[in-house]
Amino acid sequence: MTQTAAIIGGGVIGGGWLARFLLNGWNVNLYDPDPQAERKITAVLKNARHALPMLYDVSLPREGKLKICSTIQEAVAGTSWIQESVPERLDLKQKVFLEIILAAPKDAIIGSSTSGFKPSELQEGLSCPDTVLVAHPFNPVYLLPLVELVPSPANPVFIVNVAKEILTSLGMFPLHVRKEIDAHIADRFLEAVWREGLWLIKDGIATTQEIDDAIRYGFGLRWAQMGLFETYRIAGGEEGMAHFISQFGPCLQWPWTKLMDVPELTDELIQQVASQSDAQSGNRSIRELERLRDNNLIAILRSLKNENTAAGALINEHEQTIKPELPSKINGAMATISRVIPSDWTDYNGHMNESRYGQIFSDAADIIMQTVGANADYIRSGLSYFTVDVQIKFLAETHAGSSIHVKSFVLQGEGKKMKLFHQMFDEDEALLATGEQMLIHVNLETRRACEPHADVLEQLEMIAAIHTTLPDPRRV
Amino acid sequence: MTQTAAIIGGGVIGGGWLARFLLNGWNVNLYDPDPQAERKITAVLKNARHALPMLYDVSLPREGKLKICSTIQEAVAGTSWIQESVPERLDLKQKVFLEIILAAPKDAIIGSSTSGFKPSELQEGLSCPDTVLVAHPFNPVYLLPLVELVPSPANPVFIVNVAKEILTSLGMFPLHVRKEIDAHIADRFLEAVWREGLWLIKDGIATTQEIDDAIRYGFGLRWAQMGLFETYRIAGGEEGMAHFISQFGPCLQWPWTKLMDVPELTDELIQQVASQSDAQSGNRSIRELERLRDNNLIAILRSLKNENTAAGALINEHEQTIKPELPSKINGAMATISRVIPSDWTDYNGHMNESRYGQIFSDAADIIMQTVGANADYIRSGLSYFTVDVQIKFLAETHAGSSIHVKSFVLQGEGKKMKLFHQMFDEDEALLATGEQMLIHVNLETRRACEPHADVLEQLEMIAAIHTTLPDPRRV
After folding, report:
1. ipTM for this model
2. pTM of the full structure
3. Do the Cβ atoms of B223 and A215 come within 8 Å?
4. Chain A residue closest to B43 (CA)?
5. Which residues 326-355 of B have a C-beta within 8 angstroms of A?
6. How is domain A4-176 classified at the architecture level of CATH?
7. What's B188-283's CATH class?
8. For chain B, how many helices (H) and strands (E)?
9. Among all residues of chain B, which has the CA nearest to that of A291?
10. Is B169 in a helix, a strand, or coil?
């Protein structure tokens, strides 16, 4: 059954949560007293609908229903997850939690997006704080997997486990912070860097642009995949981590950072930072910057996904849980592929690079392989099909963000041979391209052609027998 | 003429510099008194040869010559760039600079890889410090573009400009640090995070693994493309950077970081970090971790390259400067493509994804387009060729890291039509695949077929006239 989440507070963070739930098939109730809330949510949702489906090579579940509510009571009724993202004031948050607890189902998880407060602070004054914990996400919430999950001793273990399960099902990575602390983990690092950055600007050493370049052309690239310690482990080389620390640890005592003090946020310093930031990015609107950021993140995440590593491995794991059913109908065209074209697939003419048509048809062939039983286990056992010939006809253009689907036919299925024909359509059933593809069954060890397993051959022959009675799809 | 660089000190950093220069076509003289130096350099070079060419979609220049020297004098003679990467001790570095200066050509730039010393400190006691400055790179030096270029007041502006030009020609991004300061810019941030990380471990809040996850699944992904300030500018939304600072600035005064103190590096703390790091990454050797890191970085950098943004835009700019000549011989097969297969192009069978054959043939068609004058300017003017049909034959497997090249033929070139035939070969001239491709000339505004510009058509017809007298390459 479709689950429902309540989003209390619909700013950039609340809106990002809302999009995560909605695009993963949850219904969402929104409560936000701001009269601008619906407009703001619409903007975030537009970005999220553009971005999140591009991470995946399968269709996400059908989007849930969004309901705008006029009270907290209305929003939290019948929900399994309630996410609070109101402004960062402890008294306000505590007041909101009191209201939520009164009306929420007893077993609903109540997460707070707080950047800094400890869960025990949020739980103060609640008669039943079991289900209230910190679930601190990172902007853009619909793309970044990290969520710091911070319980207090008042949260039973099974509540923490349910929370982890739900967050994982949304494609997020719940980092269980085992000991509560102000600002959790990640924000402590962000604060340290932010403070050092303000000093460098105040002292006239570097501008915002120079600082950003120092990050994104250097250690930012390292941190997108390995973080700090694994990077340093490598730097330590064969002698290991202890060697690295004894070599570089002493630098900590050197005057390399402004340890002792916080720069005063004078109007002058604020203006200095703001005008440098204008000079750096002012030619682009916030909307343009958001789109740029999202497209960059999609590209990075997809590249890590292709390597099945770091954050990309999380996406692959999530994708496994939403793998669509194989085509159930084989007595006509088989529905093999349904997906969104990601932004990194377009060429300088602004339409999908021709090589991707081949990839889509190759994915369609994979689905047919799985349908006849030549699945991942089968490949691990040392047998597979290789494509030896493909002919693609390009009939119309396709762009990033388009939803396409593929119908596939088995033209021939006998012995080592499997001949397929694919038709690729857009949302309006316009034919975009066709592909005729010959595959040969091979033994992966000898790298030579061989007969498939009898079960596979039987399935294939059965489908081919049906499909050859259909009108030849190549003539359509 | 081929330029020569001297590498003084061949550890991980010196070796990375060596690889950068060598793979960009420079000759390199290495001086390192360590008897293990050659072995260590070989290991770094192996990684670099695997990694760097994969960033590019063109061939890098022919590798330069490596010479192992037994004295500093021998190493620096006749060089244009000298890079010092000896251990981080000021007295040692100063001694090395004295020796270098005595034997180096007067106009050779002398860069120091120091992480922390100021250039004026390195210049102390030198009679002629003009050419000595800090050029601080980031590991792996052969992949990460950032290099902090820090002059002192003793360096003339033109020396700084020459240094920038040379570093840019190596595909690096010289960040000009305008005011010298201990630890330059990036290392100040790294120190701040490293210190905070050690506290979190010492206080039992988080393990090395948890800290790395907090980075690589969250803000690390943001920083790989935009850095700190542009990210926060977006978070500030339409109200801008000044709004963001006044909202989040006060947190700096909260107890969110261990401002005041440095954890003592007791044996106990060192062991704690080392054993957590073992638990996190100990199942992989340093070599395996290096290869994993490099493959991840290649994937991320290539994804940013495809978006032409952040560090990827730097690679594209560099690639423009090393664009190979268009085929000079048109009276036979045209040499259109010569490249290395990048690691993100292989599928689960371990060989190049079939869609990439289409991409390579599409790139070959681009070269032919440029050869007949349908180049970037021509496309900007609103005219181009679109592929309408391609037939690919897959004859043998190809793997990541392989060098391939393509020979192309114009089978037909008349009116709106351009029909091409491509043959793709491996290093041993084995035929891997062929592609027969029909392109139609279009007007990019009307999206309709039209005749090419007369100059383009004339070139195309001329080549077609020659190629149709050759034996039909499809019969080979």
Report:
1. 0.81
2. 0.81
3. yes
4. A237
5. 343-344, 348-349, 353-355
6. 3-Layer(aba) Sandwich (3.40)
7. mainly alpha
8. 17, 14
9. B234
10. helix
